[in-house]
Design brief:
- Strands 2, 4, 5, 6, 9, 10 and 11 form a 7-stranded mixed β-sheet that branches. Strands 1-3-8-7 form a 4-stranded antiparallel β-sheet, with no helix packed on it.
- With 124 residues, it is mostly beta strands.
- It is built from no helices and 11 strands.
- The radius of gyration is 13 Å and the shape is globular.
Length: 124
């Protein structure tokens, strides 16, 4: 499976941005999917995730109430809607897929497939 992330850019604090991750090779319904982010010098951090069934989502405490993950089976893609953005949300955002459907959805090592990353910069 291949993942292609897009939609990053520069946004002012308080603004919104929507990231997309196109999935090719297999249907998105086969995978737990997630968004992670990484700042240089730091480990990759879990942001949000959605189970393969589409029935359950998870969010990091730092983004709860602001970020939402969604899935479009027809487009074979997932999305990250980011609202009320803060400067500390600045990072490279990666989409990830886990074909083993691990219960450890917040761990980067659970995911065997990664997109190339898209940079989000929150600054005035």
């Amino acid at each position: 499976v291949q993942l292609q992330a897009s939609g990053g850019g520069l946004v002012q604090p308080g603004g919104s941005l929507r990231l997309s991750c196109a999935v090719s090779g297999r249907t998105v319904q086969n995978y737990n999917m997630a968004w992670f982010r990484q700042v240089p010098g730091n480990e990759r951090e879990f942001v949000v995730g959605i189970r393969w069934s589409g029935s359950k989502t998870s969010s990091a405490d730092s983004v709860k109430g602001r970020f939402t993950i969604s899935r479009d089976v027809a487009k074979n893609a997932i999305f990250l809607q980011m609202n009320s953005l803060k400067p500390e949300d600045t990072a490279v955002y990666y989409c990830a897929a886990d074909g083993r459907r691990s219960v450890a959805v917040t761990l980067a090592q659970s995911y065997g497939y990664w997109g190339q990353g898209t940079l989000v910069t929150v600054s005035s």
